[in-house]
């Protein structure tokens, strides 16, 4: 974990994103704040619809507007507020300072262009390299992500690659211009476990080599446990708990985090006779929250939870929770 | 031991590949290539493997949703391997299926009541009133509110839709249900709800499941015995604890070590995990010898020549691997010498 360097490369403050639909507004992201330091990996976990992807896409203006509208907040990339800059400046930042890896490599690569062209495109656009230099850079990148015979594969089309190889190409494109921040949106969800293990290994390796900040979105707590330095848990468009990875897994303080950790079975250790269940459904976000989003599924909810929306409060070093009655320390704490 | 409810012997499902102007058959995709297993009444057999290994095709073939290439299938004492689709209709109420994608497997233009009631009007001669009563009963069983009977599938969430699919599968009181990735499309907190429902129903109705999934941790939870499939063949079949604690096949070992653990302490220790190199070969053109020989960290010289036999290495624990050739229960040790001349495995793996 990087210490000493306390500068944040990316800082998000009070971000709110709303979709205006024919059936009314959907408040997808509600006052989300987080920060990432260089070389650090922040894991963002949550179920589908919890606002993880929308948050990240809001940062660099990837959401179509309308219907999406970023109502409030600040997104500081090295001190520059991305919500205030011109569209042209934002276009320069996307793909160069901020790299994106999406979930499904088949739909995010263009099937009618060669892989080589798609890797060279951002390099030529952002770094101003000529064709020959861009080609050399593309080969270097494909080698970096472990594609054998890189030079020979530049003229191949995406369909000639397997799923895992395509995701490597996506990583190569995201890394093409040495981004300061890499945002990975469920990059291994569409892959098999053995291929996922390969990709995780590459990311670990690249992180130590290139030292960029990574924001890794996933719903898989297992993946997060293995790679993240810090974790933010999202529910109903808000970050409900945020901590370093050990305290989060060993001593979760939000009832949702704890319940989520209990619902997942494992391949080793004790096998539960019955799976724990979080009853009910995730909330619909029709309006700005006026109460705790988890109240209807929370075993500990009381009157105040229905009347007020809890804000994130510090419960330990680097550990904050949005809950009126954060759970007590657990005995397992020493396990870290 | 009780007689198995389902017996599958040497099941093969090959899909022809046609090419050229004359559409001549030039080969076959061997999606399922000689699979054998039994499922005892009341148990859950988990079938795991990566995408494209043939696990879904296997599940569908067992129910004869395909006309199989070869093999024997006996369900509830009746051989259905070669029967015509028409005569199979009388067998359909006994064996049902729950599909992966509840969105795609429910007709968007039918109400929930019509979807759940359809098998009843198709296979039984119940009156309208009886059917409505039975639909209500089924909705109670799967935890759906009876008042939603006239709603359409799009009005439900993913987990509720999967409950509709389960209710439909239960309508005819089946004995055997193939669950084809029933939770893959659902969120973690909803997965647990559906898995608990499936377990409750099994206890209450004495159902037998073939549970197909790529999620090894969920299979460990629900299955009594687990079969691991790779490239159209079973590589290992064992009782749950034996498979997860002492896997015999290198593929099972690699698969288990690739599953990320939701515990940062364990994840830290797992640095010596086995990362398989490369991708699964194409089932249209499988390698010679053992199918796994191209990626196996413990590959030996014999593996690329002779396809290992799927045999009982320990009581109830089956595996298809030359590493276990030396322990032949039948007494023949003809491959013993070959098994000891191991080719040096890839450097990262330490068995």
Structural features, described:
The complex is a heterodimer of chains A (336) and B (351). Chain A is an alpha/beta fold and 336 residues long. Chain A has a domain of 76 residues. Chain A is built from twelve helices and twelve strands. In chain A, strand 11 and strand 12 form a beta hairpin. The longest helix of chain A has 18 residues. Chain A is globular, with a radius of gyration of 21 Å. Chain B has 351 residues and is α/β, with parallel strands linked by helices. Chain B has twelve helices and twelve strands. In chain B, strand 11 and strand 12 form a beta hairpin. In chain B, helix 4 packs parallel to helix 6, helix 5 crosses helix 6 and helix 6 packs parallel to helix 7. The two termini of chain B are 36 Å apart. The C terminus of chain B is likely disordered. The chains are: A alpha/beta (336), B alpha/beta (351). Chain A: InterPro entries: AAA+_ATPase (IPR003593), ABC_Ni/Peptide_Import (IPR050388), ABC_transporter-like_ATP-bd (IPR003439), ABC_transporter-like_CS (IPR017871), Oligopep_ABC_C (IPR013563), P-loop_NTPase (IPR027417). Chain A: It is a peripheral membrane protein. Chain A: It is found in: Cell inner membrane. Chain A: Belongs to the ABC transporter superfamily. Chain A: Keywords: ATP-binding, Cell membrane, Membrane, Nucleotide-binding, Transport.
